[in-house]
# Entry
Amino acid sequence: MDLVEAEARLSVRLLEAEGRRPRDDGDSEAPAELIEQVLAVCEQHYAAVTGTSAEQWDRESARELVGGALGTVRMAERKTYPQALEAYLREHRARLERLWRRYGPGGMFAGELVLIDLPGFLVLCERIETSPLWLEGIWAKHGQEETALEGFRTAGSTTQGKGTGDEQDSAQETPARPEVEFP
# Structure
């Protein structure tokens, strides 16, 4: 990697850390059609992972969560993002199931991981892995609680092993579920 390419990558990372897009990426608000497509992918996988159904979800909150997270998908990648998310969710299914068993209702750490009760948590998991600084910047820009993202980041790293992770004790206090509002 030459100096020019290194500088360009650093510039993009700094913009992402501020919740901004690189110059060539245009508007950060995702189109409604893309939000619906991604939400449908999330709902399908969420039902399979959790054994729950749409009647149990807050669809509007899930839609807002997906819309906000999609602000970190580059314009050039948006057309194929639903397929990329689908591939990610298939590849990480076992880890997502461990996450649900551990932090979902009835899990040892139930209530500690806010937003897990929304299908949109799946797109958050993917974005935390793919564009963590950009997601963090967008999250902060919209005044969202850092606790929710940090919880997913920590939980995701602790469920990457082969065990369920249910054997560990928690010393954390159960956080209240923050309101998620993205324009």
